[in-house]
Write a structure and sequence with these properties.
With 438 residues, the chain is α/β, with parallel strands linked by helices. It is built from 13 helices and 19 strands. It has four domains: 7-123, 3-Layer(aba) Sandwich (Rossmann fold); 141-256, Transcription Regulator spoIIAA, CATH 3.30.750.210; 258-376, 2-Layer Sandwich (Transcription Regulator spoIIAA), CATH 3.30.750; 381-436, Nucleic acid-binding proteins (OB fold (Dihydrolipoamide Acetyltransferase, E2P), Beta Barrel), CATH 2.40.50. The structure holds S-adenosyl-L-homocysteine, iron/sulfur cluster (SF4) and FE3-S4 cluster (F3S).
């Protein structure tokens, strides 16, 4: 008689680092405990929610989802809360959701096999060093390999909870990163995405003695890997975007010409209060340098509105940066006070109504700019790598510079095609295959 493998359902909230942690959680469970993955929570023996704590909304979502999972779970199925909210709230989670079996923080992924065996266990230390931990291999996307190059964050941006949930910044030895990238390519990946809260401070601290290497050098080394077609990274910090890095970004053909440069605010006064370490002028200088050096580069950003002390004229400066840089992609958020951060204690709060209005103004300017940017792409040719969309019917893909494309004629999944942009639908460009390129 064969015994059935236990099944795990994983729900990931939050950023790409959480996505990578979910891959590691699953790989550990599969390799060491024989788990299979399921996309149906009701048939799972283990339900994991990998949480985000960056704003209040994802935290509220966690507790509503937990309640729903508790209702549909199989008898004796376990529920584990992982990730950043696990780190931030620890055992307080049991008080709000007593049916939770264990809590596993963002810096404790390797403890998953211990956690499932110890009811009510809580692993939330941020001192625990996972920078050289050999996780079992695994990824959820066939073609795209997420690879951590550093964990934690040494910055202390006043609004941000990440340093509290992910601990001190530690770079992962370059040899491990290269091996991981090589293995990924051998098993079919065409693209690697290098992850860190601050990718361009790579190399400032390793957990054990290591040769001197910085982010531009790491990029060059990774680009030597045969068969690897595309390198992406997220996210660089504006403060550390220097000319040497930009030279590599511009010149290395494997590096995709899209860069996320988180602005947060266009006002130097607010940037100072946020402890971002740069001024509006520095930010503009760097972003416009990207425009000048790489003609087809796209730039994305994050903006927070309603940070304590933000006056109308400060907010106008964020709009001004938008007008000058013309971001191709923009994520905007209302300031959300987070426990454990300096900004949570700041006075001079902005009224919610005012913050909502500002958010709306950012959205409307962005929408207008995005339409203009997309219109300007029609008729141009792009190199697009094709994947199957979630509905498993349409093909979609990203251009080198991160435009989304949909619906092609004469093209297949898993191929690079040269396409001409012929239209726009639901925020994506519609491409027509011109010829296969690689
Ligand atoms: N390391 C990344 C940020 C990770 S958090 C960086 O430095 O860019 C992702 C984004 O969430 C941030 O860029 C910021 O715009 C937003 N964010 C973080 N904390 C926030 C808070 N307390 N309220 C609102 N938005 C926040
Ligand atoms: Fe948070 Fe700032 Fe670190 Fe980004 S750089 S993770 S915003 S503290
Ligand atoms: Fe990522 Fe959210 Fe944690 S953005 S680092 S999962 S708080």
């Amino acid at each position: 008689m064969t015994t059935l493998s236990p099944k795990v359902f994983i729900k990931t909230l939050g950023c790409a680092m959480n996505e990578r942690d979910s891959e590691h959680l699953f790989a550990e469970l599969r390799e060491k405990e024989g788990y299979e993955r399921t996309d149906r929570a009701e048939e799972a023996d283990l339900i994991l929610i990998n949480t985000c704590s960056v704003r209040e909304r994802p935290v509220a979502k966690l507790f509503s989802e937990l309640g729903a999972f508790n209702l549909i779970r199989k008898e004796r199925a376990k529920i584990g809360v992982c990730g950043c909210t696990a780190s931030a709230l620890g055992e307080k989670i049991f008080a709000r959701a007593p049916y939770v079996d264990f809590v596993l923080g963002a810096r404790n992924v390797s403890k998953i096999t211990e956690a499932i065996k110890n009811s009510r266990s809580v692993f939330t230390g941020t001192g625990y060093d996972e920078s050289e931990f050999a996780f079992a291999e695994g990824r959820f996307n066939k073609y795209r390999a997420l690879i951590n190059i550093s964990i934690g964050c040494d910055k202390q941006c006043a609004y941000c909870i990440v340093p509290a949930t992910r601990g001190k910044e530690i770079s992962i030895p370059s040899k491990l990163i290269l091996n991981e990238a090589k293995k990924a390519v051998e098993s079919g990946a065409v693209e690697v995405v290098l992850l860190g809260q601050n990718v361009n401070s790579y190399g400032s601290r390793f957990s054990s003695p290591h040769k001197k290497i910085d982010f531009p050098e790491l990029l060059e080394e990774i680009s030597q890997i045969d068969g690897l077609k595309r390198i992406r990274f997220q996210s660089p910090h504006p403060l550390h975007i220097d000319d040497r890095f930009l030279r590599v970004f511009a010149d290395n053909p494997k590096i995709c010409k899209h860069i996320h440069i988180p602005l947060q605010s266009g006002s130097t006064k607010i940037l100072r209060a946020m402890r971002r370490g740069y001024t509006k002028e520095w930010y503009l200088d760097r972003a416009l340098k990207v425009r000048e050096m790489v003609k087809d580069a796209t730039i994305s950003t994050d903006i927070i509105v309603g940070f304590p002390g933000e006056r109308e004229e400060d907010f106008e400066e964020s709009l001004d940066v938008m007008r000058q840089v013309k971001f191709e992609q923009l994520f905007s958020f209302k300031f959300s006070p987070r426990e454990l951060t300096a900004a949570a204690l700041m006075g001079d709060r902005v009224e919610d109504k005012t913050a909502s209005k500002r958010l709306w103004r950012i959205h409307s300017l962005y929408k207008k700019q995005l339409n203009e940017a997309m219109d300007a792409q029609i008729g141009k040719e792009f190199d697009v790598f094709l994947e199957l969309a979630d509905d498993r019917k349409t093909l979609y893909g990203k251009s080198h510079n991160f435009y989304s494309f949909r619906i092609f004629n004469g093209a297949k999944e898993g191929e690079f095609v040269k396409v001409r942009a012929v239209g726009i639908k639901n925020g994506a460009l519609i491409g027509e295959a011109v010829e296969q390129t690689r």
